[in-house]
UniProtKB/TrEMBL annotation:
Cofactor: Zn(2+)
Complex formation: Acetyl-CoA carboxylase is a heterohexamer composed of biotin carboxyl carrier protein (AccB), biotin carboxylase (AccC) and two subunits each of ACCase subunit alpha (AccA) and ACCase subunit beta (AccD).
Annotated GO biological process: fatty acid biosynthetic process; malonyl-CoA biosynthetic process
GO MF term list: acetyl-CoA carboxylase activity; ATP binding; carboxyl- or carbamoyltransferase activity; zinc ion binding
Gene: accD
Native source species: Denitrovibrio acetiphilus (strain DSM 12809 / NBRC 114555 / N2460)
PROSITE patterns tied to this protein: COA_CT_NTER
Name of the featured protein: Acetyl-coenzyme A carboxylase carboxyl transferase subunit beta
GO cellular component terms attached to this protein's record: acetyl-CoA carboxylase complex
Record-listed Zn(2+) binding positions: C30, C33, C49, C52
Enzymatic reactions: N(6)-carboxybiotinyl-L-lysyl-[protein] + acetyl-CoA = N(6)-biotinyl-L-lysyl-[protein] + malonyl-CoA
Principal cellular location given in the protein's record: cytoplasm
Lineage start: Bacteria, Pseudomonadati, Deferribacterota, Deferribacteres, Deferribacterales
Length: 281
């Protein structure tokens, strides 16, 4: 092969790679309906498919920003970080997994919490970052949720939680599982103080998070199509050896069977939740 042919082949390969990167930046294929949409159009539509309404997983701060008045959010307890008292290791050290998650998300753990306003009304709010170890609830997440609730009681404000989690963080074993009782107990104090907990469930909300505070809202709201469960449908089918109903454990199925109160698209979040806050006073 001559130098001219060699360079021509290299240029063609670079062109293919560049085109692929451009295409991926411009377009995205919906995992639900298969339609190809402009990224810009999807973003403008609050990261939902303009064709079928599929709600894509988005970062915690994006969810908070959909709800809150622009510039009103003030974060709390951002410096809390997970320890490794069990010296846990599977294929990697737990500490290494946490370091990688911190680097990836620019967050110290899987839950961001703080205060803000919805149409001028002050609230305490917290949301999960699914990209941080699957949004798992460890000791830091549980502590941040409890601190959020305690601060809300002190300031006489309602609480909004936005869940998106694979469940308890098994690398922390019982220290993770105890957060289920810890967060649920904090909500008892909130209710005794006459304050509301609005629980917003996004895809997916599973495991120990579902089995504790996430389903203990005074109002439980889900995104369309969200998977909300303790054990997933595949595990259940393998256990009971039966075929499950269509849509089992999805938001609409849970609404039909009285497990949640409403299913809301992201476009409806702010106005509906503001009305709920007004109702609770």
């Amino acid at each position: 092969m001559g130098i001219r042919d060699f360079l021509s082949e290299k240029i063609q390969k670079v062109g293919v790679i560049a085109k692929k990167q451009i295409d991926e930046n411009l377009w995205m294929k919906c995992s639900a309906c298969g339609e190809v949409n402009y990224h810009r159009e999807v973003t403008k539509n609050l990261n939902t498919c303009p064709r079928c309404g599929k709600h894509f997983i988005i970062p915690a701060m994006d969810k908070i920003n959909i709800l809150l008045d622009k510039g009103s959010f003030q974060e709390m307890d951002s410096g809390l970080r997970s320890l490794d008292p069990l010296k846990f290791r599977d294929s990697k050290k737990y500490t290494d997994r946490v370091k990688a998650a911190v680097k990836k998300t620019k967050m110290n753990d899987a839950f961001v919490s703080g205060v803000g306003r919805i149409n001028g009304k002050p609230v305490h709010i917290g949301a999960y970052e699914f990209n941080f170890l699957g949004g798992s609830m460890g000791s830091v997440v549980g502590e941040k949720i409890v601190r959020l609730i305690e601060s809300a009681i002190e300031n006489n404000q309602h609480v909004i939680t936005i869940s998106c989690s694979g469940g308890a963080r098994m690398q922390e074993s019982i220290l993770s599982l105890m957060q289920m009782a810890k967060t649920s107990a904090a909500l008892v104090k909130l209710r005794k103080a006459g304050l509301a907990h609005i629980s917003l469930l996004t895809d997916p909300t599973t495991g120990g998070v579902t089995a504790s505070y996430a389903m203990l809202g005074d109002v439980n709201i889900a995104e369309p199509g969200s998977l909300i469960c303790f054990a997933g449908p595949r595990v259940i089918e393998q256990t009971i050896r039966q075929t499950l109903p269509e849509g089992f454990q999805r938001a609409e199925f849970l609404l039909e069977h009285g497990m949640i109160d409403m299913v809301l698209s992201r476009k409806e979040w702010k106005e509906t939740i503001y009305k709920l806050l007004e109702f609770f006073g």
